[in-house]
Amino acid sequence: MEGYTCSGPIDCGKALNTTNLKGKTAIITGGANGIGEVYAKALSDAGVNVCVGDMDAERGSKLASDLKHAKFVKCDVTIWEDQLRLFAEAASFTGKVDYVVANAGICPKDEVFTFSGKDREPLEPNLAAIDVNLKGTLYTTKLALHYFVKQNGEEPSSQQDDTCLVLIGSGAAFLDCLRGPVYPSTKWAARGIMHSLRRTAFYHGTRVNVISPWYIKTSILSADVFAHVEQSGVQFAEAEDAGSALLRILSDRTINGKSLFVSARKWAPAGYLDLDIEDYPGNELIQEIQVDQMKSAPVAEGLFLI
Fold first, then answer.
1. Helix (H), strand (E), coil (C) string for 3-66
2. CA separation, residue 256 to residues 70, 130, 181, 228 (Å)
3. Are 33 and 63 within 8 A, CB to CB?
4. Residues 287, 305: Cα–Cα separation, whole Å
5. How far apart are CA 64 and CA 38, in angstroms?
6. Which residues in the chain come in under a pLDDT of 50?
7. In principle, which of 6, 12, 98, 109 could form an S-S bond with 279, CB 3.0–4.6 Å?
8. Residue 162 to residue 178: CA distance in whole angstroms
9. How far apart are CA 26 and CA 50, in angstroms?
10. pLDDT of residue 290
11. How far is 216 from 126, CA to CA, in rounded Å?
């Protein structure tokens, strides 16, 4: 596998060929409901062994029983030991973990963007979204990298199996989302994790990418909120297109360091597209600054610096 290079946008109109995914093993956190469930079904249909981690044991167990070659592990992603158990159970399929989708996330009411009143002390905000969406994702990332390095080693080789970490962003990972900074901060962070890893991941045969869904009707927001958004004239994305975006990334070993936006179909017939925003195309100054950013610890010095 070659190291990261800046390239143009992915051709998202290309027909999917998922034959190379059959028999691989994937972990999906938050996979019992919503988009996570769509990911699980798409991977299972492609012949992938799927291990779903989720707090919802009833739905997760039923989903695993309905799918081919699937397991469910009750998992709170904010608890390290739960994620350790999730990864160990997934590895029991074949002895390896090939793909990891860090999907678990919540979007509670934002308590940072509130005002208690000029005559009252401000209340401590609920930051559960930071724990689930960021802390949980970092736990998932660490475990994914542990398994990938353990399986493939620290030196590039033609013998390495393809492995891939897919981080889940949102439109809130790159758009101005008003009056609620907590959730967007966690989704911008997903992109930050990808940027930190994408240039050295080739050492252990890994790719790191982001999927950022637009509005999709799931339980992450209330029915009333979705109805209000829809009545304002917003066209939603389709959940099944998120599954296609995931298959597009996993089935193409050339895709690394990219973000796919799962969009309304008015913006992309496939329901997803590469907005080509991760390398600031056409901005020579920021490209030059990026080179300087890496000078003191260049990629060529190896995976881990001593």
1. CCCCCCCCCCCCCCCCHHHCCCEEEEECCCCHHHHHHHHHHHHCCCEEEEEECCHHHHHHHHHH
2. 26, 26, 28, 36
3. no
4. 24
5. 13
6. none
7. 6
8. 39
9. 5
10. 94
11. 24
Tokens of 200: 């050295």
Q: In this predicted structure, what is the pLDDT of residue 267?
A: 97
Q: What is the pLDDT of residue 24?
A: 98
Please tell me the distance from the alpha carbon of residue 125 to that of residue 138, in angstroms, as a whole number.
22
Amino acid (one-letter) located at 295: K
Amino acid at 15: A
DSSP secondary structure of the chain: -PPP-------TTSPP--GGGTT-EEEEET-SSHHHHHHHHHHHHTT-EEEEEES-HHHHHHHHHHSSSEEEEE--TTSHHHHHHHHHHHHTTTS---EEEE--------SSS----TTSPPPPPP-HHIIIIIIHHHHHHHHHHHHHHHHH-SS--TTPPPEEEEEE--GGGTS--TT--HHHHHHHHHHHHHHHHTTTGGGGTEEEEEEEE-S--STTS-HHHHHHHHHTTPPPPPHHHHHHHHHHHHH-TT--S-EEEE--TTT-TTSEE----TT-TT-HHHHHHHHHHHTTS-GGG-SS--
pLDDT of residue 184: 98
- Residue 265 pLDDT: 97
Q: Which residues are catalytic?
A: 183, 187
Residues 250-291: pLDDT tens digits? 999 999 999 999 999 999 999 999 999 999 999 999 999 999
Give per-residue pLDDT as tens, 110-140. 999 999 999 999 999 999 999 999 999 999 9
State residue 190 phi and psi, 5-degree precision: -60, -40
Q: Which residue has the tokens 């930071």?
A: 130
Residue 277 has a CB neighbour count (10 Å cut-off) of 15
Q: Report the distance separating Cα 74 and Cα 65, nearest Å.
A: 14
